[in-house]
Amino acid sequence: MKVLYIAPVGSDVYLPARAEICERAGNAGTAIDIVSLPPGRPTHVEYHAYEAMVLADVVRHSYAAANKYDAFIIGCFYDLGLREAREVSGRTVVTAPCQASTSIAMALGNTFSILVGRRKWIPKMTENVRMYGLEHAMVSMRAVDLGVHDFQSHAESEDRLMETGRRCVEEDGAEVLILGCTAEFGFHEKMQDELGVPVLDPMLSALKYAEMLVEGAQRFGWYPSRKWGSEAPPEEEMAAWGLFDREPPTGTFIEAGSLASRSLAKKIPAE
Amino acid sequence: MKVLYIAPVGSDVYLPARAEICERAGNAGTAIDIVSLPPGRPTHVEYHAYEAMVLADVVRHSYAAANKYDAFIIGCFYDLGLREAREVSGRTVVTAPCQASTSIAMALGNTFSILVGRRKWIPKMTENVRMYGLEHAMVSMRAVDLGVHDFQSHAESEDRLMETGRRCVEEDGAEVLILGCTAEFGFHEKMQDELGVPVLDPMLSALKYAEMLVEGAQRFGWYPSRKWGSEAPPEEEMAAWGLFDREPPTGTFIEAGSLASRSLAKKIPAE
Amino acid sequence: MKVLYIAPVGSDVYLPARAEICERAGNAGTAIDIVSLPPGRPTHVEYHAYEAMVLADVVRHSYAAANKYDAFIIGCFYDLGLREAREVSGRTVVTAPCQASTSIAMALGNTFSILVGRRKWIPKMTENVRMYGLEHAMVSMRAVDLGVHDFQSHAESEDRLMETGRRCVEEDGAEVLILGCTAEFGFHEKMQDELGVPVLDPMLSALKYAEMLVEGAQRFGWYPSRKWGSEAPPEEEMAAWGLFDREPPTGTFIEAGSLASRSLAKKIPAE
Amino acid sequence: MKVLYIAPVGSDVYLPARAEICERAGNAGTAIDIVSLPPGRPTHVEYHAYEAMVLADVVRHSYAAANKYDAFIIGCFYDLGLREAREVSGRTVVTAPCQASTSIAMALGNTFSILVGRRKWIPKMTENVRMYGLEHAMVSMRAVDLGVHDFQSHAESEDRLMETGRRCVEEDGAEVLILGCTAEFGFHEKMQDELGVPVLDPMLSALKYAEMLVEGAQRFGWYPSRKWGSEAPPEEEMAAWGLFDREPPTGTFIEAGSLASRSLAKKIPAE
Amino acid sequence: MKVLYIAPVGSDVYLPARAEICERAGNAGTAIDIVSLPPGRPTHVEYHAYEAMVLADVVRHSYAAANKYDAFIIGCFYDLGLREAREVSGRTVVTAPCQASTSIAMALGNTFSILVGRRKWIPKMTENVRMYGLEHAMVSMRAVDLGVHDFQSHAESEDRLMETGRRCVEEDGAEVLILGCTAEFGFHEKMQDELGVPVLDPMLSALKYAEMLVEGAQRFGWYPSRKWGSEAPPEEEMAAWGLFDREPPTGTFIEAGSLASRSLAKKIPAE
Amino acid sequence: MKVLYIAPVGSDVYLPARAEICERAGNAGTAIDIVSLPPGRPTHVEYHAYEAMVLADVVRHSYAAANKYDAFIIGCFYDLGLREAREVSGRTVVTAPCQASTSIAMALGNTFSILVGRRKWIPKMTENVRMYGLEHAMVSMRAVDLGVHDFQSHAESEDRLMETGRRCVEEDGAEVLILGCTAEFGFHEKMQDELGVPVLDPMLSALKYAEMLVEGAQRFGWYPSRKWGSEAPPEEEMAAWGLFDREPPTGTFIEAGSLASRSLAKKIPAE
User: Fold this and answer.
1) 3-state DSSP call for residue E211?
2) ipTM score here?
3) Which residue segment(s) compose the domain that F103 sits in?
4) Residue B141, number of CB atoms within 10 A of its CB
5) Is F124's CB within 8 Å of D136's CB?
6) Nearest-angstrom CA–CA distance, D255 and D268
7) Do chains D and A touch (3 or more CB pairs under 8 A)?
8) Does residue E147 sit in the same domain as residue E211?
9) Same structural domain for residues E12 and E69?
């Protein structure tokens, strides 16, 4: 199965690490490509205006790669564009980190906490959890005062996540922890060893969730609904406007995973 | 006070009518400018992918006109980009049709129904009402099977709205009706005369709501919060990326309202 | 436009100050009258039994002045009698401080806190916020341990509001603050200067909200619904019982605002 | 135990029937007095303005009879004044028909419907059910188009209740029915025989609920809380205002039940 | 009336004390039998797996004693088996401690806290409160770090309950306290004397609630619904499977209360 | 990976079909064993009392096979014993049909309907969906008036499911359909072909969800939480009571799937 991880940022700083992690994490038959946006796009989307500036690109990638991949993963814990990208994804299933990791959390315990970077993120992420119907199970969302680009470079990252995670468990009653940023990779194993509760890495959650959805699609025909609110826009209208005439803006493109034939990469040239 | 109505579509077909309506509807001191997007952008945003394609433009207009206007109105009942536009609006308040009309509805009755165009729109609009916390008061959302561009051209528009509105009142128990599309203008007066309940035009609701917010801002300093989730992105970062270096893409720009000096128009040249 | 502010208390101690504030705060065309109840009525309504003792008077004023004013404001953050007064207000719109300020808060930020006087008030005010559907956005309601009549006379009022407001912002994550008593006037400007978030005075919120509703009524015919739960009682029945035969009990009556002809005052003589 | 049923209306038309029913329905040791308001008060409270006109009287009776009775029942399915009356009831517990019957319904089945008189009543009664937290269990609230004074005099009352109740069960999935007006007495037995589900008479529900609360109070000291929102107003303040100096306005007073010594009646003379 | 208290544990250590308390607490006409499970069953059900091991026995007792008792009380604050036992209880009403005490709490105050033994219990008990629709009124659930069998034997039990109850009232705003375990008996009186709020013992709450339901059943025919989700399984099917052929496993059986003829005890022999 | 499907019924009538379906549906590396309960246990669990009679067996199988399998699937759309079985499952993850299929539905569309057998099932299944936080997305739950054992034998099963599914889509607005019984297998493909929306078979959903959870467990250490409400009971206590001394009662045991070495079967002998 072929999965496209769409990193909605104009930065490839985390891409090689992501590729390596995904390569190890994917199933035997899973090939994961990772694509980022070109320079000039925001290098992170902590602000909602930044999300707005890259949303169209996420949809462009979704439209361009629809039916060419089995699944898309939207690489941001805001789950930005999940609804919009799925609308034009054809038979390609789409998931995102918050949706996937909260779903998994509910299967592993009664309550969870989310560890985010900045307090900035909390209102929208809280709203997303409420939108997903899981606010009753989220006992806290706590910020560690680190930005997207701090997690992998800041000496204190691990200490802060560990200490804040401990408070979520001990003070707030969390039975499961969720790392609320796709840049919070590399921490979950040590955290769960030390804290004694499952700690969900959102990128890995999304990958496994995507693989499950693809299984459903391939074996049972469970493709995204195209009815009512999920109806796709008419092809003629999009063509008339030339809405997706240009190739989707692409920064770096990395092939990970283990699939033998990788002809797909050519389909998505850089801008 | 100066209000900018941002029509997030690459079409100016409704703009002259809007301008005329707004001119009559605004307060004595209210000047309303209306701006649309250039050709090539979707001429309606019934589909979420279309929303995605224009969201950045909404934010661009918000950023470019921040502090130059007193209020922005986002001209779509999906309230698209409300959060994102407000983030970069500086001291300019921002509102949108669904937020404004549901708020007014709650002051006029106990329950309301929303009359939308197509069933396509229902899931996201229902989610928005739920996000605003008002699902307990919405007794129904019904579609009349007309698209954005049908309302003003379809012979049956009024009949369908009238008949569906009657069902909302009589069968569903609505005490107030909301027209769920900014293209549903020109109908509310006859409908409320005949149906005997207030019928809210969302563009007009948004205009009055905007005027109220501006009053609060000008007199009492109630500008948009810039704390936590409402924090604006840092200017340096946006500048470094050149995020808003270009003028916002503009289709038609119309000045409505009664303000004497209208120097602002020059600030927003067409693309 | 003519607005009647109904102070549901048998005390005029705050009335001159209110009048002065309203006079400055109203729009150019807004005339605001303020009426209180006669001595012997509770001088504050912190207790629900006190609310009960003045509720009929609120309704009496609403019935007596229906259609003579454009809007009524119920001068208590419990929003006491909002439903009941609106039922007999004819074409006069009715609003109240909690409804108005929470609505405005939702347009300025993602979250809010309410600063009330005593813990006594918290359960009912919390219930009101829940009834309005906004409990998801209220991150805290905190009491400053001051009664209605303490706010303007207590040396520490400002300090306590400032300190408690700071905790709401910093500890609870409030992006907007609401002062939860109409006696908490005179504080919002300094608070927002110092705390850096909008601080909503509930009387001023209600005034601006009322002006908006009147605009809707006058221009678009958006009068209070009279359907289903909003149906008014039959005139004959009220007349047969002599329900509103007596003039509404009136304490002090003050004209504020800027409207030229003020013939209305004669209509509401003291008891 | 002594229970006071407060009929918040200026009409005694149903009082003898109520007394007879209560006499049969009360426990061996339960004495039930029924008090109504004097002529001139609304003879029914279908409208919220009417509720407002009698609310103070409900509180006056509560204050006057506090600690003299073991329980008060507020005789209206709007549960009008439940909060306010309980605030000044001292150690007398207070209940009301909607609270009591919905609580009992939840113990007898998974879902319930409420059969009200007019559609007028539905929004407020729905809000009450939501306030009590039971909207998830209420599968419908249906009106039979009869007013308070129609139920006992209308030839079709039983037929309409039966037919509407059947629809609640068969179409809406109700497992329990609640009669949503204290004037809907005399119907429940035949209805439940025919419809095969429990049909709760709200007056009887309230009586049994009151007896239970009195048991808790007398045996275990479970009197109404007087903490935080339940704090009673200070006696000195009420005395200074003369708030409850006059006897509560009384229409008819009937003693029902089986208690031997009935000296209490003298305490509540007619107005 | 005859009430069966089903202690769903293989331990009779608390039974004599329960019997004595129930004997004092029941109404004049109430006879309370208490039955426990035989040795080998869990002696407490703090863990959900333990609940699972005794649930069938609860249902067996319910089926065996259906219509022979007027009410069953399920003796565990998890309200374990309430739905299941009621399904086969015939005309016997069924209640349980959490359902009963939260219902009573809502009649005595605006908010409540629950004092449980261990943090282990919190997620499921919180879910139960949410299922009952009362999460809006529960301001906290706090554990005192004592197990079921510690409450009556631990020197610090009273101190911990008192101290934790005080925090619930003072810090969390509870107006009513609920003891969240049927083993927390013997504490409520001293607690409410000292803390000044009603403190509900769950066993006593359930007893009074059961008596109320029996009153409704006996006088008004309000037996458990047998419609839709409350439909009982078909007798033939149960007989064919021999589902309830054996007597329900019984440990100790104690007769409490004051009913003269106690022939029922013979009906439920020990296993 | 090894998955144990626990059919909580004393019937093996569907087991061969299930085995065949699972064998085809599982991943290459997935071996699925299916175990049922011995004769005498209910052959279906449509009634909650029947659930009660088999719950302990579900837990016994969970305890006995803990850590020997990678995942358990509880084979009933009531998700019976999910919480209880997971408590003693050690490192074995546990899922169930309703949890799995509603989670997948949320990834494929905005709304879903559930097609159940009898109206009997609706209240509890509705409560489960509410418990999972997804009631906002469930637009309807409809019964086709077929019992568990009718689906595979009734001539009209397919017609009824098709017709009812069509109403869910067309009238209720469902974008995804869920078959609400594990006996509704064999229908989903034809239904989705004809109705044009994804139709989720709950057994297959659970299987894929289980495989995803196992991936998380094996690769990332995401085992079930053992903290707070998820804490397992102490081994010593269970041993002292002999709680799980006996082998779990077993009816038929079938090995499906493709795993080479199948030594596990011996571990779970028939009763």
Assistant:
1) helix
2) 0.94
3) 98-202
4) 22
5) no
6) 12
7) no
8) no
9) yes
